[in-house]
Specification:
Helix 1 packs parallel to helix 7. It is built from nine helices and no strands. The protein is an all-alpha fold. 71% of the residues lie in helices and 0% in strands. The N and C termini lie far apart (85 Å).
Length: 344
């Protein structure tokens, strides 16, 4: 039996020979209906995401890293959703440049969303080196996974060989499971950091509300990754792509809600958080500025903890820091509080 001869490219923008002529994707009416529903969901969740992004931009009062990330995520999700739907509707023909564009927007979706999660986590990290390692470590890991997808997914969609198609079936699910694990690990690290640093060690029980809220919605965020993996079992191996922007629009809304809540709870408990605190980028002299800001924050935190504990044990109202001490109050208790404040 003679070996198969390579077939010359038959598509525009196709530069490699294939084992057989390119077979166009068979899209049924049911496939288009499902894709259209997912596209509608993307626009619906995208509306809320844009509203939240506008509010975040107005609150920040300047363009910072966080604002750039959220608007970039909205943009790439919309681009991804539109070109996917147009491809299924046969408006955009298959080509190398189309698959390259769709994969690039998908990679940006994942990278930007995880950086938003890291940005939220960095609010609670006091060490600049920890923030740098976390941010660039996650970026490097996701970049490595994305490069592997470029080398497998694009040849599989271009039908270079049947072997690429078989590898892609398994690797596509594996890399999405990796994203699920990374997302879950970051959220677990966030919950653990809040509990150990702010609830247990700091004594601020009010942060339990943040922990409870994040624990509940983290399952919703992770379920979006499960939705994408489950949609990969459809007979049309491209329709599931239409659910990518849906999942990441939902995730983006969750992350913006989390950022709002953590700043609100931090301010309610006396921790100084500026509008630009979600931007941890450093310029010349930025490291020392961040260190001084955290030291100041720690001082305010310790003062309030001391007052809250004293109020609980001695039943004295200390809500107004300028209140005059009654003459009948125990001077020993007042001296204790003054000592605690001077120590902080």
């Amino acid at each position: 039996m003679s070996p198969k001869m390579p077939v010359e490219p038959t598509l525009w923008g196709m530069y490699w020979p294939t084992e057989k002529p390119f077979e166009f994707l068979d899209v049924t009416q049911g496939d288009m209906n499902l894709a259209s529903i997912a596209f509608g969901w993307t626009l619906g969740f995208g509306y809320f995401a844009v509203c939240h992004a506008v509010r975040e931009s107005r609150r920040s009062r300047r363009i910072n890293t966080y604002v750039i990330l959220i608007w970039s995520e909205v943009l790439v999700c919309l681009i991804f959703a539109i070109i996917c739907w147009l491809y299924l509707a046969r408006v955009i023909p298959p080509s190398f440049w189309f698959f390259f564009t769709i994969l690039t927007t998908w990679g940006l979706q994942v990278q930007i969303l995880l950086q938003i999660i890291v940005n939220r986590l960095c609010i609670l990290l006091s060490n600049d080196s920890q923030r740098i390692w976390l941010r660039w470590g996650i970026a490097g890991l996701i970049l490595a996974i994305n490069i592997s997808v470029y080398n497998i997914w694009i040849p599989a969609k271009l039908q270079i060989s049947h072997r690429y198609h078989e590898i892609n079936i398994w690797w596509d699910r594996c890399e999405k499971a990796m994203y699920l694990l990374v997302d879950g690990a970051l959220n677990y690290y966030f919950i653990h950091t809040v509990k150990t640093r702010l609830v247990k060690h700091g004594g601020l029980k009010k942060y339990a509300r943040l922990v409870k809220f994040n624990t509940q919605i983290v399952f919703l965020s992770l379920s979006m990754d499960v939705l994408i993996i489950s949609m990969m079992s459809l007979h049309n191996d491209f329709v599931y792509m239409q659910f990518h922007p849906v999942a990441y629009m939902v995730k983006l809304n969750i992350e913006m809600a989390m950022s709002n809540l953590i700043i609100k709870v931090a301010r309610d408990t006396g921790i100084h958080v500026t509008e630009d605190s979600t931007d941890h980028s450093t310029s010349k002299g930025g490291v020392s500025a961040n260190t001084n800001r955290f030291q100041s924050t720690t001082m305010e935190l310790q003062v309030q903890v001391a007052r809250q504990q004293f109020t609980t044990h001695d039943d004295i109202e200390l809500a107004d820091t300028k209140a005059v001490w009654p003459a009948s109050e125990d001077h020993e208790a007042r001296d204790t509080l003054d000592h605690q404040e001077s120590f902080c």
